[in-house]
Write a structure and sequence with these properties.
The complex is a heterodimer.
Chain A lengths: L4 H31 L3 E3 L8 E3 L4 H17 L4 H23 L6 H7 L3 H6 L7 E2 L3 E2 L5 H19 L6 H19 L3 H21 L8 H18 L3 H7 L1 H14 L13 E3 L5 E3 L9 H5 L7 H23 L6
Antiparallel strand pairs in A: 1-2, 3-4, 5-6
Chain B lengths: L1 H30 L8 H39 L7
Classes of the chains: A mainly alpha, B mainly alpha.
Chain lengths: 334, 85
Protein backbone atom coordinates (compact mmCIF):
# COMPACT_ATOMS: atom_id res chain seq x y z
CA UNK A 1 0.00 0.00 0.00
CA UNK A 2 1.57 3.28 -1.14
CA UNK A 3 -0.88 5.79 0.34
CA UNK A 4 0.30 7.72 3.40
CA UNK A 5 -1.75 8.39 6.55
CA UNK A 6 -2.88 11.89 5.50
CA UNK A 7 -4.09 10.69 2.07
CA UNK A 8 -5.88 7.70 3.62
CA UNK A 9 -7.66 9.94 6.15
CA UNK A 10 -8.61 12.43 3.40
CA UNK A 11 -9.98 9.62 1.21
CA UNK A 12 -12.09 8.29 4.09
CA UNK A 13 -13.51 11.76 4.79
CA UNK A 14 -14.36 12.28 1.09
CA UNK A 15 -16.23 8.95 0.88
CA UNK A 16 -18.20 9.65 4.08
CA UNK A 17 -19.11 13.13 2.78
CA UNK A 18 -20.32 11.57 -0.52
CA UNK A 19 -22.45 9.03 1.35
CA UNK A 20 -24.01 11.60 3.71
CA UNK A 21 -24.63 14.24 1.03
CA UNK A 22 -26.36 11.67 -1.20
CA UNK A 23 -28.31 10.02 1.62
CA UNK A 24 -29.54 13.37 2.97
CA UNK A 25 -30.74 14.74 -0.38
CA UNK A 26 -32.53 11.66 -1.80
CA UNK A 27 -35.80 12.04 0.24
CA UNK A 28 -35.85 15.77 -0.53
CA UNK A 29 -35.46 15.27 -4.29
CA UNK A 30 -37.85 12.29 -4.28
CA UNK A 31 -40.74 14.23 -2.74
CA UNK A 32 -40.03 17.28 -4.93
CA UNK A 33 -39.99 15.18 -8.12
CA UNK A 34 -43.15 13.30 -7.10
CA UNK A 35 -44.95 16.60 -6.47
CA UNK A 36 -44.02 17.70 -10.00
CA UNK A 37 -45.42 14.46 -11.43
CA UNK A 38 -42.03 13.08 -12.45
CA UNK A 39 -42.35 9.41 -11.69
CA UNK A 40 -41.90 6.10 -13.48
CA UNK A 41 -43.95 2.91 -13.27
CA UNK A 42 -42.28 -0.10 -11.65
CA UNK A 43 -43.30 -2.59 -14.35
CA UNK A 44 -41.91 -5.62 -12.51
CA UNK A 45 -44.52 -5.39 -9.72
CA UNK A 46 -48.10 -6.63 -9.97
CA UNK A 47 -49.52 -3.38 -8.49
CA UNK A 48 -47.31 -1.24 -10.81
CA UNK A 49 -46.41 1.46 -8.22
CA UNK A 50 -45.41 4.99 -9.21
CA UNK A 51 -41.81 5.73 -8.18
CA UNK A 52 -40.10 9.17 -8.34
CA UNK A 53 -37.82 9.29 -11.40
CA UNK A 54 -34.56 11.27 -11.91
CA UNK A 55 -33.47 10.85 -8.29
CA UNK A 56 -29.93 10.15 -9.58
CA UNK A 57 -29.50 13.95 -9.23
CA UNK A 58 -28.73 13.23 -5.56
CA UNK A 59 -25.72 11.10 -6.53
CA UNK A 60 -24.44 13.83 -8.86
CA UNK A 61 -24.85 16.36 -6.05
CA UNK A 62 -23.16 14.07 -3.52
CA UNK A 63 -20.22 13.49 -5.87
CA UNK A 64 -19.85 17.23 -6.58
CA UNK A 65 -19.70 18.00 -2.84
CA UNK A 66 -17.23 15.12 -2.32
CA UNK A 67 -15.16 16.29 -5.30
CA UNK A 68 -14.87 19.80 -3.83
CA UNK A 69 -13.84 18.35 -0.44
CA UNK A 70 -11.31 16.15 -2.23
CA UNK A 71 -9.93 19.19 -4.09
CA UNK A 72 -9.53 20.96 -0.76
CA UNK A 73 -7.80 18.05 0.95
CA UNK A 74 -5.72 16.81 -2.02
CA UNK A 75 -4.97 20.21 -3.54
CA UNK A 76 -2.22 19.04 -5.93
CA UNK A 77 -4.60 17.12 -8.18
CA UNK A 78 -7.23 19.72 -9.02
CA UNK A 79 -7.16 18.97 -12.78
CA UNK A 80 -8.08 15.29 -12.31
CA UNK A 81 -10.98 16.20 -9.99
CA UNK A 82 -12.19 18.91 -12.40
CA UNK A 83 -12.08 16.43 -15.33
CA UNK A 84 -14.03 13.83 -13.30
CA UNK A 85 -16.70 16.32 -12.21
CA UNK A 86 -16.91 17.85 -15.70
CA UNK A 87 -17.55 14.40 -17.23
CA UNK A 88 -20.12 13.62 -14.53
CA UNK A 89 -22.00 16.89 -15.05
CA UNK A 90 -22.05 16.76 -18.86
CA UNK A 91 -23.32 13.15 -18.88
CA UNK A 92 -25.84 14.04 -16.15
CA UNK A 93 -27.14 16.97 -18.21
CA UNK A 94 -27.55 14.74 -21.29
CA UNK A 95 -29.38 12.22 -19.09
CA UNK A 96 -31.67 14.96 -17.75
CA UNK A 97 -32.49 16.06 -21.30
CA UNK A 98 -33.26 12.42 -22.17
CA UNK A 99 -35.50 12.08 -19.11
CA UNK A 100 -37.45 15.21 -19.97
CA UNK A 101 -37.51 14.82 -23.75
CA UNK A 102 -36.40 11.34 -24.90
CA UNK A 103 -33.44 11.33 -27.29
CA UNK A 104 -33.14 8.92 -30.23
CA UNK A 105 -31.13 5.71 -29.86
CA UNK A 106 -28.43 7.11 -32.17
CA UNK A 107 -28.19 10.64 -30.77
CA UNK A 108 -27.84 9.61 -27.12
CA UNK A 109 -24.50 7.72 -27.48
CA UNK A 110 -23.10 10.53 -29.63
CA UNK A 111 -24.02 13.14 -27.03
CA UNK A 112 -22.68 11.07 -24.11
CA UNK A 113 -19.35 10.90 -25.99
CA UNK A 114 -19.16 14.67 -25.44
CA UNK A 115 -18.70 13.97 -21.73
CA UNK A 116 -15.08 13.07 -22.59
CA UNK A 117 -14.35 16.71 -23.51
CA UNK A 118 -13.17 17.79 -20.00
CA UNK A 119 -10.67 14.88 -19.92
CA UNK A 120 -9.36 15.79 -23.38
CA UNK A 121 -9.18 19.53 -22.66
CA UNK A 122 -7.49 19.12 -19.28
CA UNK A 123 -5.17 16.42 -20.62
CA UNK A 124 -5.83 14.07 -17.72
CA UNK A 125 -5.13 10.93 -19.75
CA UNK A 126 -2.06 8.92 -20.64
CA UNK A 127 -2.12 7.47 -24.19
CA UNK A 128 -0.11 4.44 -23.00
CA UNK A 129 -2.72 2.19 -21.34
CA UNK A 130 -1.35 -0.81 -19.48
CA UNK A 131 -2.49 -4.08 -21.08
CA UNK A 132 -2.14 -7.26 -19.01
CA UNK A 133 0.75 -9.49 -20.21
CA UNK A 134 1.56 -6.96 -22.95
CA UNK A 135 2.63 -3.91 -20.91
CA UNK A 136 2.14 -0.26 -21.86
CA UNK A 137 0.66 0.12 -25.35
CA UNK A 138 1.55 3.09 -27.56
CA UNK A 139 -1.73 4.70 -28.68
CA UNK A 140 -0.65 8.32 -29.05
CA UNK A 141 -3.03 9.16 -31.91
CA UNK A 142 -5.72 6.55 -31.34
CA UNK A 143 -6.28 7.07 -27.58
CA UNK A 144 -7.84 10.59 -27.73
CA UNK A 145 -10.02 9.42 -30.63
CA UNK A 146 -11.20 6.36 -28.70
CA UNK A 147 -11.85 8.32 -25.47
CA UNK A 148 -15.34 9.70 -26.40
CA UNK A 149 -16.32 6.19 -27.55
CA UNK A 150 -15.09 4.69 -24.27
CA UNK A 151 -17.06 7.21 -22.18
CA UNK A 152 -20.18 6.70 -24.32
CA UNK A 153 -19.87 2.91 -24.01
CA UNK A 154 -19.42 2.94 -20.23
CA UNK A 155 -22.28 5.45 -19.72
CA UNK A 156 -24.73 3.56 -21.93
CA UNK A 157 -23.68 0.08 -20.73
CA UNK A 158 -24.38 1.16 -17.13
CA UNK A 159 -27.68 2.71 -18.22
CA UNK A 160 -28.72 -0.57 -19.89
CA UNK A 161 -28.38 -2.59 -16.67
CA UNK A 162 -30.70 -0.31 -14.67
CA UNK A 163 -33.61 -2.70 -15.18
CA UNK A 164 -34.45 -4.03 -11.71
CA UNK A 165 -34.66 -2.50 -8.24
CA UNK A 166 -31.09 -2.02 -7.02
CA UNK A 167 -29.51 -3.84 -9.97
CA UNK A 168 -27.34 -0.94 -11.09
CA UNK A 169 -26.68 0.75 -7.74
CA UNK A 170 -25.81 -2.56 -6.04
CA UNK A 171 -23.53 -3.92 -8.75
CA UNK A 172 -21.80 -0.61 -9.43
CA UNK A 173 -21.06 -0.16 -5.69
CA UNK A 174 -19.11 -3.44 -5.87
CA UNK A 175 -17.28 -2.30 -9.03
CA UNK A 176 -16.38 1.08 -7.43
CA UNK A 177 -14.97 -0.63 -4.34
CA UNK A 178 -12.82 -2.91 -6.51
CA UNK A 179 -11.56 0.07 -8.54
CA UNK A 180 -10.81 1.99 -5.32
CA UNK A 181 -8.72 -0.93 -4.04
CA UNK A 182 -6.74 -1.15 -7.29
CA UNK A 183 -6.19 2.63 -7.35
CA UNK A 184 -5.05 2.57 -3.72
CA UNK A 185 -2.60 -0.23 -4.56
CA UNK A 186 -1.27 1.80 -7.49
CA UNK A 187 -0.69 4.76 -5.14
CA UNK A 188 -3.09 7.26 -6.73
CA UNK A 189 -4.79 9.15 -3.83
CA UNK A 190 -6.97 11.45 -5.98
CA UNK A 191 -8.46 8.69 -8.12
CA UNK A 192 -8.87 6.50 -5.01
CA UNK A 193 -10.80 9.28 -3.27
CA UNK A 194 -13.06 9.69 -6.32
CA UNK A 195 -13.67 5.92 -6.58
CA UNK A 196 -14.54 5.66 -2.89
CA UNK A 197 -16.73 8.77 -3.14
CA UNK A 198 -18.56 7.02 -5.99
CA UNK A 199 -18.92 3.88 -3.86
CA UNK A 200 -20.25 5.97 -0.95
CA UNK A 201 -22.81 7.76 -3.12
CA UNK A 202 -23.89 4.53 -4.82
CA UNK A 203 -24.29 2.76 -1.48
CA UNK A 204 -26.48 5.60 -0.17
CA UNK A 205 -28.61 5.38 -3.31
CA UNK A 206 -28.80 1.58 -3.11
CA UNK A 207 -30.45 1.86 0.32
CA UNK A 208 -33.37 3.68 -1.33
CA UNK A 209 -33.26 1.92 -4.71
CA UNK A 210 -33.10 -1.71 -3.51
CA UNK A 211 -36.21 -3.93 -3.60
CA UNK A 212 -38.90 -2.56 -3.20
CA UNK A 213 -37.54 0.63 -4.75
CA UNK A 214 -38.55 3.98 -3.32
CA UNK A 215 -36.61 5.97 -5.92
CA UNK A 216 -35.52 5.50 -9.54
CA UNK A 217 -32.26 6.67 -11.10
CA UNK A 218 -33.55 8.13 -14.33
CA UNK A 219 -31.08 8.49 -17.21
CA UNK A 220 -29.79 11.57 -15.36
CA UNK A 221 -28.17 9.32 -12.78
CA UNK A 222 -27.31 6.23 -14.83
CA UNK A 223 -25.53 8.09 -17.64
CA UNK A 224 -23.70 10.31 -15.13
CA UNK A 225 -22.33 7.47 -12.98
CA UNK A 226 -21.54 5.35 -16.05
CA UNK A 227 -19.51 8.19 -17.55
CA UNK A 228 -17.92 8.79 -14.12
CA UNK A 229 -16.69 5.17 -14.03
CA UNK A 230 -15.24 5.61 -17.53
CA UNK A 231 -13.53 8.86 -16.47
CA UNK A 232 -12.14 7.19 -13.37
CA UNK A 233 -10.59 4.39 -15.42
CA UNK A 234 -8.88 6.93 -17.70
CA UNK A 235 -7.71 9.29 -14.94
CA UNK A 236 -6.47 6.37 -12.83
CA UNK A 237 -4.91 4.50 -15.81
CA UNK A 238 -6.84 1.31 -15.03
CA UNK A 239 -8.67 0.89 -18.33
CA UNK A 240 -8.41 -2.90 -18.65
CA UNK A 241 -9.12 -3.46 -14.93
CA UNK A 242 -12.33 -1.42 -15.34
CA UNK A 243 -13.36 -3.33 -18.48
CA UNK A 244 -12.95 -6.66 -16.64
CA UNK A 245 -14.86 -5.37 -13.59
CA UNK A 246 -17.67 -4.19 -15.85
CA UNK A 247 -17.91 -7.60 -17.61
CA UNK A 248 -21.61 -8.19 -16.68
CA UNK A 249 -22.46 -4.70 -18.01
CA UNK A 250 -20.51 -5.29 -21.22
CA UNK A 251 -22.12 -8.73 -21.65
CA UNK A 252 -25.59 -7.22 -21.17
CA UNK A 253 -24.96 -4.37 -23.64
CA UNK A 254 -23.29 -6.61 -26.23
CA UNK A 255 -25.95 -9.35 -26.10
CA UNK A 256 -28.71 -6.74 -26.42
CA UNK A 257 -27.08 -4.93 -29.34
CA UNK A 258 -26.06 -8.17 -31.11
CA UNK A 259 -29.54 -9.71 -30.85
CA UNK A 260 -31.35 -6.55 -32.02
CA UNK A 261 -28.64 -5.81 -34.61
CA UNK A 262 -28.55 -2.04 -34.02
CA UNK A 263 -28.56 0.64 -31.32
CA UNK A 264 -31.91 0.61 -29.54
CA UNK A 265 -33.88 2.25 -26.75
CA UNK A 266 -35.85 0.08 -24.33
CA UNK A 267 -39.05 1.97 -25.13
CA UNK A 268 -38.57 1.26 -28.86
CA UNK A 269 -38.35 -2.53 -28.41
CA UNK A 270 -41.78 -4.11 -28.85
CA UNK A 271 -40.79 -7.59 -27.63
CA UNK A 272 -39.76 -7.35 -23.98
CA UNK A 273 -36.96 -9.72 -22.87
CA UNK A 274 -38.63 -10.47 -19.51
CA UNK A 275 -42.27 -11.11 -18.57
CA UNK A 276 -44.06 -10.66 -15.25
CA UNK A 277 -46.07 -13.73 -14.21
CA UNK A 278 -49.30 -13.72 -12.25
CA UNK A 279 -47.48 -14.96 -9.13
CA UNK A 280 -45.14 -11.91 -9.23
CA UNK A 281 -42.12 -13.88 -10.48
CA UNK A 282 -40.28 -12.94 -13.68
CA UNK A 283 -39.63 -15.25 -16.61
CA UNK A 284 -37.69 -15.07 -19.88
CA UNK A 285 -39.81 -14.19 -22.90
CA UNK A 286 -39.86 -16.96 -25.53
CA UNK A 287 -40.20 -14.40 -28.34
CA UNK A 288 -37.28 -14.80 -30.77
CA UNK A 289 -37.35 -11.06 -31.58
CA UNK A 290 -36.77 -10.01 -27.94
CA UNK A 291 -33.22 -8.92 -27.06
CA UNK A 292 -31.09 -11.51 -25.23
CA UNK A 293 -30.15 -9.37 -22.24
CA UNK A 294 -28.29 -10.68 -19.17
CA UNK A 295 -31.63 -10.69 -17.28
CA UNK A 296 -33.17 -12.93 -19.94
CA UNK A 297 -30.08 -15.13 -19.82
CA UNK A 298 -30.44 -15.48 -16.03
CA UNK A 299 -34.12 -16.40 -16.43
CA UNK A 300 -33.50 -18.89 -19.25
CA UNK A 301 -33.45 -21.83 -16.82
CA UNK A 302 -36.72 -20.82 -15.14
CA UNK A 303 -38.61 -18.01 -13.37
CA UNK A 304 -37.16 -16.07 -10.44
CA UNK A 305 -38.16 -13.25 -8.08
CA UNK A 306 -36.81 -9.78 -8.87
CA UNK A 307 -34.63 -9.63 -5.76
CA UNK A 308 -33.16 -13.07 -6.54
CA UNK A 309 -32.12 -11.85 -10.00
CA UNK A 310 -30.45 -8.78 -8.45
CA UNK A 311 -28.59 -10.94 -5.91
CA UNK A 312 -27.33 -13.16 -8.74
CA UNK A 313 -26.25 -10.08 -10.72
CA UNK A 314 -24.38 -8.81 -7.65
CA UNK A 315 -22.68 -12.18 -7.25
CA UNK A 316 -21.57 -12.14 -10.91
CA UNK A 317 -20.28 -8.57 -10.52
CA UNK A 318 -18.38 -9.55 -7.37
CA UNK A 319 -16.76 -12.35 -9.39
CA UNK A 320 -15.79 -10.01 -12.25
CA UNK A 321 -14.49 -7.47 -9.68
CA UNK A 322 -12.24 -10.11 -8.07
CA UNK A 323 -10.91 -11.00 -11.53
CA UNK A 324 -10.36 -7.28 -12.19
CA UNK A 325 -8.28 -6.96 -9.01
CA UNK A 326 -6.25 -10.01 -10.07
CA UNK A 327 -5.76 -8.45 -13.53
CA UNK A 328 -3.90 -5.59 -11.82
CA UNK A 329 -1.24 -8.06 -10.64
CA UNK A 330 -0.67 -9.74 -14.02
CA UNK A 331 2.91 -8.93 -15.01
CA UNK A 332 4.22 -8.05 -18.45
CA UNK A 333 5.45 -11.03 -20.49
CA UNK A 334 8.54 -10.33 -22.61
CA UNK B 1 -26.53 -24.89 -11.62
CA UNK B 2 -27.81 -21.59 -13.01
CA UNK B 3 -25.35 -19.54 -10.93
CA UNK B 4 -22.46 -21.86 -11.84
CA UNK B 5 -23.23 -21.66 -15.58
CA UNK B 6 -23.45 -17.86 -15.49
CA UNK B 7 -20.31 -17.57 -13.36
CA UNK B 8 -18.55 -19.74 -15.95
CA UNK B 9 -19.73 -17.39 -18.68
CA UNK B 10 -18.42 -14.33 -16.76
CA UNK B 11 -15.06 -16.04 -16.16
CA UNK B 12 -14.86 -16.97 -19.87
CA UNK B 13 -15.59 -13.37 -20.91
CA UNK B 14 -13.09 -11.89 -18.42
CA UNK B 15 -10.30 -14.34 -19.27
CA UNK B 16 -10.84 -13.97 -22.99
CA UNK B 17 -10.67 -10.17 -22.59
CA UNK B 18 -7.35 -10.47 -20.71
CA UNK B 19 -5.70 -13.17 -22.83
CA UNK B 20 -7.47 -12.10 -26.04
CA UNK B 21 -5.67 -8.74 -25.90
CA UNK B 22 -2.36 -10.55 -25.50
CA UNK B 23 -3.02 -12.98 -28.35
CA UNK B 24 -4.26 -10.22 -30.66
CA UNK B 25 -1.29 -7.95 -29.92
CA UNK B 26 1.28 -10.75 -30.29
CA UNK B 27 -0.38 -12.11 -33.46
CA UNK B 28 -0.58 -8.65 -35.03
CA UNK B 29 3.05 -7.89 -34.14
CA UNK B 30 4.09 -11.27 -35.60
CA UNK B 31 2.35 -10.92 -38.96
CA UNK B 32 2.98 -7.16 -39.21
CA UNK B 33 6.47 -6.42 -37.86
CA UNK B 34 7.69 -2.80 -37.80
CA UNK B 35 10.07 -3.51 -40.69
CA UNK B 36 7.24 -4.61 -43.02
CA UNK B 37 6.67 -1.18 -44.54
CA UNK B 38 8.96 1.87 -44.45
CA UNK B 39 6.10 4.01 -43.16
CA UNK B 40 5.33 3.41 -39.48
CA UNK B 41 1.91 5.02 -39.93
CA UNK B 42 0.89 2.45 -42.59
CA UNK B 43 2.00 -0.45 -40.37
CA UNK B 44 0.06 1.03 -37.45
CA UNK B 45 -3.13 1.40 -39.52
CA UNK B 46 -2.78 -2.19 -40.79
CA UNK B 47 -2.27 -3.39 -37.21
CA UNK B 48 -5.44 -1.65 -36.06
CA UNK B 49 -7.43 -3.18 -38.96
CA UNK B 50 -6.17 -6.72 -38.24
CA UNK B 51 -6.80 -6.24 -34.49
CA UNK B 52 -10.38 -5.09 -35.17
CA UNK B 53 -11.02 -8.10 -37.44
CA UNK B 54 -9.69 -10.48 -34.76
CA UNK B 55 -11.79 -8.76 -32.08
CA UNK B 56 -14.87 -9.09 -34.31
CA UNK B 57 -14.25 -12.84 -34.80
CA UNK B 58 -13.88 -13.20 -31.02
CA UNK B 59 -17.18 -11.34 -30.43
CA UNK B 60 -18.97 -13.64 -32.93
CA UNK B 61 -17.69 -16.71 -31.07
CA UNK B 62 -18.77 -15.15 -27.76
CA UNK B 63 -22.28 -14.55 -29.14
CA UNK B 64 -22.53 -18.09 -30.54
CA UNK B 65 -21.69 -19.59 -27.13
CA UNK B 66 -24.24 -17.34 -25.40
CA UNK B 67 -26.99 -18.12 -27.92
CA UNK B 68 -26.31 -21.83 -27.58
CA UNK B 69 -26.50 -21.63 -23.77
CA UNK B 70 -29.64 -19.46 -23.81
CA UNK B 71 -31.77 -21.52 -26.24
CA UNK B 72 -30.59 -24.84 -24.72
CA UNK B 73 -31.64 -23.56 -21.27
CA UNK B 74 -34.99 -22.29 -22.56
CA UNK B 75 -35.69 -25.63 -24.28
CA UNK B 76 -34.79 -27.68 -21.20
CA UNK B 77 -36.79 -25.44 -18.84
CA UNK B 78 -39.95 -25.65 -21.00
CA UNK B 79 -39.63 -29.40 -21.70
CA UNK B 80 -42.62 -31.33 -20.40
CA UNK B 81 -44.83 -28.27 -20.01
CA UNK B 82 -48.15 -27.89 -21.82
CA UNK B 83 -47.51 -24.27 -22.76
CA UNK B 84 -44.33 -22.63 -23.97
CA UNK B 85 -42.89 -19.79 -21.82
Amino acid sequence: MVLDFYSSAAILIVSVVAFLATYATIPMFASWLKRRGMFGIDVHKLDRPKIPEMCGISVILGLCVAGLVSAGLLADHFREIAAFLGTLLIAGTIGAIDDLRPLSSKLKPVLTGLAAVPILLLGTYDPHPFLPLVGAARLTILYPLLLPIAIAVSANAVNMLDVFNGSMSGTLTIVSLALALVLALSGNPTATSLALALAGSLLAFYLFNRYPARVFWGDTGTLAVGAAVGALSVIGRIEVVTIVALAPYIMNAFYGLASIGKLYERREVKSRPVRLRKDGALEAAADKNAPVTIARLILAEGPMREQQIVHLLMMLTALSSVLAILTFFIPEVR
Amino acid sequence: MRAAALAGLVVFVCLSMIFGTFVIVRFVMFILPSSLTPLIMVTDVLRVIVAVVLAYVYLRVWKMITDWYFWRSVRSSTRGKDEPL
